[in-house]
Amino acid sequence: MPLDAAAPLLCAGITVYSPLKYFGLAEQGKHVGIVGLGGLGHVAVKFAKAFGAKVTVISTSPSKKTEALEHLGADSFLNSRDPDQLQGAMGTLDGIIDTVSAVHPILPLLGLLKSQGKLVLVGAPDKPLELPVISLIMGRKTVSGSSTGGMKETQEMIDFAAKHNITADIEVISMDYVNTAMERLAKADVRYRFVIDIANTLAATKP
Hints:
207 residues, alpha/beta, Cinnamyl alcohol dehydrogenase 6
C-alpha cells in the first residue's frame, strides 16, 4: 500500500473499522448511516461498502452529495437539515456511525434507526449531547461510543484495506506548510487528511 495514503488508516481507519465490526454492521445487506463526510466519514463509507453494506451518508452540507454518491460510492444521501428527507428515511437504518465532533442533536438520528438499531459515536464534541431517552426506550435502541482498536485489530484492518484497495484521500504537504495546513483545518478546508512528507522536507533542507 502507498505509505502516504495508508498512514491515516492507523487513526481514522481503525476508528471506524472497529465499531463497524464490533456492533455487527460489517455484514452483507446491513443498512449503515455515516454522519459527517470528513476525515473519518469518508473512510467509514469505503469500509462499509467493502463489507457489503448499503450506505447512506448523512450531512448538513448538501454540497457533499455528489462527493458521497459519485466519488465514494455511497448508495444514498440525506441532508440532515431537510425534515422531509429525514421523515422519508425513518426507521430504515440498522446502525449509524456518527463521526461529527461538533455539538449536534441526536434525536433525528435515532429516528432513522430500525428497532434495536445502534448509534455509535466516534466524534468527540467538546460539550455534552442531549440524550432523548424516550426514543431509546420505545425502539430498544442503543447509543454507544468507540475509540480505536488494538494491534491485532489494526493489522486486520490494514490487511482488509489492502485487499479491497482502501486508502484515505489525502493531500501531501511539506513541513514548512504546517502552519498554513492548521489554518485550513480550522476552516475544514482539507479533503480529507493532510500527510506531512518529512523525508523529502529534510532532503530539501540539506546543504
